[in-house]
Amino acid sequence: MLGTFTFHNPTKLFFGENSLDFLREELPQYGSTVQLIYGGGSIKKNGVYDRVVAILKELGKTVVEDPGVMPNPTTDKLREGVRIARENGVDFLLAVGGGSCCDYAKAVSVSVHCDEDPWEKYYLRFEEPDCPIVPVGCVLTMAGTGSEMNAGAVITDPGTKLKIGHVFGDGVMPRFSVLDPTFTFSLPKYQMAAGIYDIFNHICEQYFSGEDDSTSDYLAEALMKSVVHSSRIAIQNPQDYEARSNIMWAATWALNTLIACGKSTDWMVHMLGQAVGGFTDATHGMTLSAVSLPYYRMICPHGLPRFARFAKEVWGIDPAGKSQEELAAAGLAAMEDWMKELGLALTIGELGATEEMLEGIADATIHLDGGYKVLSREDILQVLRESL
Ligand code: NZQ
Ligand code: ZN
Of 43, 46, 137, 308, which has the fewest beta carbons less than 10 angstroms from its beta carbon? Predict the structure, then answer.
């Protein structure tokens, strides 16, 4: 294992059917005023809202409503959430929804007791919180981001078309998350597929780095195989509990810092996808799928042994009679076939990106150096052009 690292994940997980009941044990230890954070209304249609509110009332909590968190939550919404929290003196933030609600709750949590503008402080200046943090809990309804067990919070500023993630410290991780796979049954197929690819790509971002023998890579391969296997079942039958529960569990472990231990990690697909998202407001997982294949084909020669291993271990390609290049290429071809099976976006054009946007998207792409190739601005433009 490379380097010296700390692994500490304080989020408590409640998993499985009826895991919502654990709210009764968990919530009494927090204050009496709860800001109930949710999105555009899916939780009212599938009954999750009623079940959560019933428990909050039973526990005698004062509920402060904070609805309307949009996919890719914005700076304006963040400022509104901070205002709601301050005006009502909330003690606890309960996010009920997907990654957008969880991320937003975390961004509110570090901003309520802070005088400065949160976008400028945390997203432009990348400062750490120096004020009390309001505790957060999550009831997850969409599997994908891993936000339920990490300290990331991605916010979009529509004015500047910038979508930026800040990974905070342990203090910002949710105190607990409730993961009931049946809550994800009502997701539209498009969102389910986007979430599945988000999970898969989180694993790729950590797997495609380093040349040493690392336990993290073996864990990553196992997670990828499980995601691919379960996704094929779920896309045929979204109500298959076994498949959906495996996908939900894999999502959490894909991005809770475990498989990043001892790794430099890449994250360039996310940097490209986020820049595309800032310009198009497209669904996160689809922005990743749209840029992935041109990106991986570009960096493949620089990390050939890892791409060959990916082909053999994750996609079951027989290496016999193949050069490393042929094996690696066969792995990426198998990945492409799987992406087509899921109906993922394979171009940024279908997400609303145009030729005129490419320079701006390239400028908005953050350059990272943990992967197999450090991309120049021209490389980024080439990936974007090939993705169009
Ligand atoms: O708003 P509602 O009505 O709830 O509808 C949502 C939304 O339209 C819907 N949905 C969620 N659960 C549902 C459901 N519809 C029916 N039934 C259900 N059970 O799905 C849509 C998408 O929800 P959203 O929360 O936006 O999706 P996701 O979980 O993919 O979160 C995306 C956000 O997370 C960020 C992304 O950039 C994006 O802003 N990410 C956060 C990360 C982190 N914290 O570590 C890492 C990720 O890479 C990602 O960047
Ligand atoms: Zn992601």
Answer: 46
* Ligand with an atom nearest the CA of residue 173: 1
Task: Give the tokens for residue 2.
Answer: 């490379």
Q: Retrieve residue 89's tokens.
A: 């003196």
| CA distance linking residue 202 with residue 206, whole number of Å | 7
Ligand 1, CB cutoff 6 Å, lining residues: 39-43, 46, 71-72, 97-101, 103, 141-142, 144-147, 150, 152-154, 165, 183-184, 186-187, 191, 195, 198, 255, 270, 284
- Within this chain, do residues 205 and 334 fall inside the same structural domain, yes or no? yes
The whole model's pTM is what? 0.98
Contact, 162 vs 193, CB < 8 A?
A: no
Predicted confidence pLDDT, tens digits, the chain (388 residues): 999 999 999 999 999 999 999 999 999 999 999 999 999 999 999 999 999 999 999 999 999 999 999 999 999 999 999 999 999 999 999 999 999 999 999 999 999 999 999 999 999 999 999 999 999 999 999 999 999 999 999 999 999 999 999 999 999 999 999 999 999 999 999 999 999 999 999 999 999 999 999 999 999 999 999 999 999 999 999 999 999 999 999 999 999 999 999 999 999 999 999 999 999 999 999 999 999 999 999 999 999 999 999 999 999 999 999 999 999 999 999 999 999 999 999 999 999 999 999 999 999 999 999 999 999 999 999 999 999 9
CATH number of the domain that residue 279 is part of: 1.20.1090.10
Q: Which of 142, 173, 279 to mutate to test the pocket of ligand 1 (most atoms within 8 A of CB)?
A: 142
Range of the domain at 298: 189-387
- 152 - beta bridge partners? 167
Pairing outcome for strands 136-140 and 33-38: unpaired
In a domain? residue 153 = yes
Q: Are residues 77 and 212 in the same domain?
A: no
